[in-house]
Each structure stands twice: as structure tokens, then as C-alpha cells.
Design a protein that fits this description.
Helices cover 57% and strands 0% of the residues. By secondary structure, the chain is mostly helical. Helix 2 packs antiparallel against helix 4. The longest helix has 28 residues. Pfam families: DUF2530 (PF10745).
């Protein structure tokens, strides 16, 4: 505790009480401009993931007997869940892309 009753130590002469000023005094690298945000449509990515789950579901149906014999019959349910969640995600990404990018320009000239 200082002599004036505050819990702050007395400021030394020549030192900055402002943390931002102290940071700029010791900073060695110059300021770099912020990178531009990447504008990427998410619907094709979600659709590709859904397609992969659909292929997995079809494959589990072809090998249903082998999977059941090895105790892995749950793989089909997992693939079906992936397809359902993928369809929901693709729909959500289509809505988000429409909001973010607006309507696609028409090819009318």
C-alpha cells in the first residue's frame, strides 16, 4: 500500500502508466494489415459430405450380412444418420449462403 492510501505503487518517473503505451514501446514488429475474409460458399462442401455418407450407406447395404457377422451392423445406422444430418446441414448452408451472397446473378444480358 502506498503512502497516499491507494493500493497502486507510485509511478516511476519516465514510465508509462498506460499499458497500451508500454506495449507499443516494446513491440518489435510493425503493424500488418488484416487479411481479407475468405468468401466461400459452404453448400457444395456440405453436399459433398452428404454424398460421401450416401455412398457409405449404399456400401453398408451391399455388405449387410458380412457386417452383421462381424458385429458391425450399426455401421448402416451410422451412415443413415450421416445422410440425414448431412441433408439438414446442406439445407442450412444453402440458406446461409443465400443470406451471405444474395441471389445469384441471372445470365440475362
Amino acid at each position: 500500500m502506498s503512502t497516499d492510501g491507494s493500493s497502486q505503487p507510485p509511478a516511476a518517473s519516465g514510465s508509462s502508466a498506460n499499458p497500451r503505451a508500454a506495449y507499443h514501446r516494446v513491440k518489435k514488429t510493425p503493424e500488418l494489415p488484416a487479411a481479407d475474409a475468405v468468401r466461400l460458399r459452404m453448400t457444395p462442401i456440405a453436399a459433398a459430405g452428404t454424398l460421401v455418407w450416401t455412398v457409405a450407406l449404399v456400401l453398408t447395404q451391399f455388405f449387410r450380412d458380412d457386417l452383421a457377422a462381424s458385429g458391425r451392423e450399426w455401421w448402416g445406422a451410422c451412415a443413415l444418420t450421416g445422410v440425414i444430418v448431412g441433408l439438414l446441414g446442406t439445407a442450412a448452408m444453402a440458406v446461409a449462403d443465400k443470406r451471405h451472397f444474395g441471389k445469384a446473378p441471372r445470365g440475362d444480358a
